[in-house]
Automatic annotation (TrEMBL):
Gene Ontology BP annotations: cell differentiation; protein export from nucleus
Repressor found in the keyword field: no
Keyword annotations of the record: Coiled coil, Cytoplasm, Developmental protein, Differentiation, Nucleus
Location (main, coarse): cytoplasm
Domain of life: Eukaryota
Compositional bias ranges of the Acidic residues kind: 800-811
A single cellular component GO annotation: centriole
Cell location: Cytoplasm; Nucleus
Coiled-coil portions: 169-243, 273-324, 533-721
The name this protein goes by in its record: Coiled-coil alpha-helical rod protein 1
PANTHER family in alphabetical order: COILED-COIL ALPHA-HELICAL ROD PROTEIN 1 (PTHR46822:SF1)
Length: 811
């Protein structure tokens, strides 16, 4: 920001210098008024006020401004090593420009006031007249010739500038011509691309039409092929129907055989039932005999329960067999009815194959009849499932009763084990005491672990604190380095301020011209592009509509073909699946009956094995109890030894860890003290560097102020010499001669009328003021210190704006 303010002050100084030089050239080119002779003194006529615009001695002598520039002690460009950063926002430069314009306006007003004061001072009549020596006249002539040469040089420079301007205009026109050519070429290329795309589009449409015709022919051929396949399928259906009739006959014979087998099985089961009833009668006689004997009540009750359970199981099996026989009769009757209906349908189908409508009706009737058969099968399956569920429930109840009987036996065994458990409790009490001692030792170990964890946490906290201190110190050092770098870079902006301002102005003019050209080009392109796009959209919509219609027709044909083929395939698959399911169901029923018989035999064997296993387990339990007692005594000794060893090891480890913790704490304290000392040293260094920078800034400001005061004093001295010189010329009568010899004042071609208007207005204002107040003294000019104050007041506003813009960019 300080660099921006310094660049702004340098720019204002350069602009003021250029304006003062222009004023001096205009004064040098103005003409002189007549000087009339009076016997007593030299006195000017009505044009005495124009004496203020005569050539001053500083115009004829070597330029004082060069000496002033040599006396200004600015920093050389070699000190600015790094390039200046470009301003990111144009708003700050615009505000600087506005401020510079305001300062220039103030300078022009101050200069006007000074000129008015000088005119008022020069209007005082002179009483002393001296003769002009010849040497001074020659000197004045030489000065006039030098001025004329300088004017000629300026004209040459103006001509060179006009030539350069013409060259730049020609180059700009050439660029415009090249841009127009490029524009025409791009338009041509775009038109060619459009034509190519149209041709491609037409070719694609032609290809699509051909493809559509080919697909239509393919579909027709496919339909013919499918019709042939349908005919073949009809023939296959006839053959299948013949095969199915044969299979039905075979299945009937197999069903009759199965019925005979099932009747035999039923007879065998009836014989088994009679045998079981005989066994029951024998058991009842056995029970009557046993009642006469003197047995314990518990055994008698258990045997009664087991016999009752066996009776219930046998009755349940009898009920299941009766229900299965009934279901088998239902299935056989339903199968006979289904076969009769199918035979009738096959006979009807052979007579009525010719009519398609009748074929459809036959298919529907077949489908309905198959659905009815499937429903009957489902209902029969549900009945079978219910019967099976009831059967499994009865089995579970039987098993539960068996469990109750086994529990009774277990309770007898538990009473025998109770005595032994009392002995085990005595041993467990001693074990409890040992466990309590173990718990106490474990709690001590946990306390030590907690202390260890707390110590580790403290060490981590201390290490984190040290790391944070280090990071803070590094951040402060980095901030100091950044501040130094910023101070170095801020001074680099001064050297390139004036050149950058001119460059920015030229770039702005160029950008405006390019924007106008681009806007014209974009407007033409958008109109042409919109027309082409609309035509292309219309054609594309028409073609897409045709394509959609073609695709829809193709999809409809394909769906119809798929549906026909799928329906025929589903019908064939359903017929085959039904017959296969019936065969499988009959096989499964036979297999299930065999599996039930095997399971019953296996269950009886398992129950016997369980009884033997339970007896063996009781013997093993007694042996294990003895072994466990021996192992408990051995483990007690081992645990005591292990606990003593662990205590010794833990004490040694904790002592070593505590020593390490103390060492680490001491080291961290030392590092902390070192970090604090370094922080204080860095803070002191930062304060010293800050004071040094403030002193440098104060010295530089004092140096600039001294230079400005010197410049003001030199300006006052030059103005005094000019006034003295003009007074001597007017007293010696050289003004008239110079005017007569010189003729009309020379005017530059490149001067603007705006530069002459303020001078003419100033002279008129001075005349009117002299006529009204001839003896009034002008007010003193506005000093440069006030202008510097204005600049300092504008600087913070510019700084605030730039900071706000930078913050917005960062966000």
């Amino acid at each position: 920001m300080v660099g921006a303010v310094t660049t702004f002050s340098v720019v204002t100084y350069v602009v003021a210098k250029q304006s003062s030089q222009k004023r001096e050239t205009t004064r040098a080119l103005l003409g002189f008024r007549k000087i009339e002779w009076h016997p007593l003194n030299w006195q000017t006529t009505a044009g005495t006020d124009m004496a203020a615009f005569l050539n001053k001695p500083s115009d004829f002598a070597p330029s004082l401004y060069e000496d002033i520039e040599s006396q200004i002690k600015l920093l050389p460009p070699s000190e600015f090593e790094k390039p200046k950063k470009k301003a990111e926002n144009d708003s700050s430069w615009l505000e600087l420009k506005k401020a510079a314009d305001e300062i220039l306006a103030l300078r022009t007003e101050n200069q006007k006031l000074r000129d008015q004061q000088q005119v008022a001072n020069l209007q005082v009549p002179t009483s002393v007249v001296r003769p002009i020596p010849i040497e001074e006249r020659h000197y004045a002539d030489e000065l006039i010739t030098r001025q004329a040469e300088e004017i000629s040089k300026l004209k040459c420079a103006v001509q060179m500038l006009t030539i350069e301007k013409q060259a730049s205009e020609e180059s700009f026109e050439k660029q415009i011509a090249t841009l127009q050519q490029e524009k025409e070429e791009t338009i041509k290329s775009l038109r060619e691309a459009l034509n190519r795309s149209e041709d491609d589009y037409r070719c694609q449409v032609h290809q699509l039409r051909q493809n559509h015709e080919g697909e239509a022919l393919d579909l027709k051929s496919h339909l013919e092929h499918l019709s042939k396949q349908l005919e073949q399928a009809k023939a296959d259906m006839e053959t299948c129907s013949a095969m199915l009739t044969k299979e039905l006959k075979m299945e009937r014979e197999a069903a009759r055989k199965r019925e005979d087998q099932q009747n035999q099985a039923i007879l065998e089961k009836e014989l088994a039932i009679t045998n079981l009833t005989q066994q029951l009668q024998q058991l009842k006689a056995y029970v009557a005999d046993t009642e006469q004997l003197h047995k314990p009540q518990l055994l008698w009750r258990q045997e009664c329960e087991t016999l009752n359970n066996q009776i219930k199981i046998i009755e349940a099996e009898k009920a299941t067999l009766e229900s299965s026989l009934q279901l088998m009769d239902v299935r056989l009757s339903s199968m006979k009815e289904i076969l009769t209906t199918q035979e009738a349908e096959l006979c009807k189908a052979k007579e009525q194959i010719t009519d398609k409508n009748k074929m459809r009706e036959l298919l529907l009737t077949r489908w309905r009849q198959k659905v009815y058969s499937l429903l009957t099968q489902q209902k029969s399956a549900e009945l079978v499932a219910k019967k099976d569920f009831q059967k499994w429930q009865q089995k579970t109840s039987d098993l539960q009763e068996q469990l109750s009987s086994t529990k009774n036996t277990i309770s007898i065994l538990q009473h025998t084990v109770a005595a032994r458990e009392a002995e085990l409790k005595m041993a467990s009490n001693s074990d409890k005491k040992l466990k309590e001692e173990l718990q106490q030792s474990q709690q001590a170990a946990l306390c030590l672990d907690r202390q260890m964890i707390e110590n580790r946490d403290m060490v981590q906290m201390l290490s984190e604190f040290a790391v944070s201190c280090d990071s803070r110190t590094t951040e402060q050092a980095r901030v100091l380095q950044q501040a130094l770098a910023q101070l170095r870079t801020l001074g680099q902006r001064v050297s390139f301020a004036s050149s950058r301002m001119d460059m920015i102005k030229s770039q702005l003019v160029r950008k405006n011209a390019l924007r106008q050209l681009e806007e014209e080009e974009t407007s033409n392109k958008t109109q042409h592009h919109q027309e082409t796009v609309e035509d292309w959209r219309i054609e594309r919509d028409q073609l897409t509509h045709e394509l959609q219609q073609v695709i829809r027709e193709r999809d409809i044909f394909a769906l119809q073909l798929k549906q026909d083929s799928e329906t025929w395939a589903e019908k064939l698959a359903s017929m085959r699946a039904n017959y296969e399911e019936e065969v499988l169901s009959l096989k499964r029923s036979v297999e299930d009956l065999e599996i039930i018989n095997q399971n019953k035999s296996q269950q009886m064997e398992q129950i016997l094995e369980r009884e033997e296993n339970s007896r063996a387990e009781l013997a093993e339990f007694t042996e294990r109890i003895d072994e466990l007692r021996i192992e408990l005594a051995r483990h007690q000794n081992i645990m005591e030894q292990a606990l003593e060893k662990q205590k010794a090891e833990l004490e040694s480890e904790w002592a070593e860890q505590l020593a390490d913790m103390e060492r680490r704490l001491n080291e961290t304290r030392r590092e902390y003290t070192k970090a604090v000392v370094k922080l204080r040293q860095q803070e002191r260094q930062w304060v010293r560097e800050k004071e040094r920078l403030q002193e440098i800034q104060a010295v530089s400001e004092a140096h600039l102020q001294s230079q400005l005061t010197q410049m003001e004093e030199q300006l006052h001295a030059v103005e005094k010499e000019r006034n003295i010189f003009m007074a001597t010329l007017r007293q010696e009568g050289l003004l008239g001669r110079l005017r007569s010899e010189r003729g009309e004042p020379v005017r530059l071609q490149f001067q603007d009328n705006a530069a002459d208007e303020p001078n003419s207005q100033l002279t008129r204002h001075a005349r009117t003021r002299d006529q009204v107040h001839p003896q009034k003294v002008m007010e003193p000019p506005e000093p440069v210190s006030e202008l510097l104050k204005d600049l300092k007041s504008l600087a913070p506003a510019v700084l605030d704006d730039t900071e706000e813009s930078s913050e917005e960019d960062q966000e």
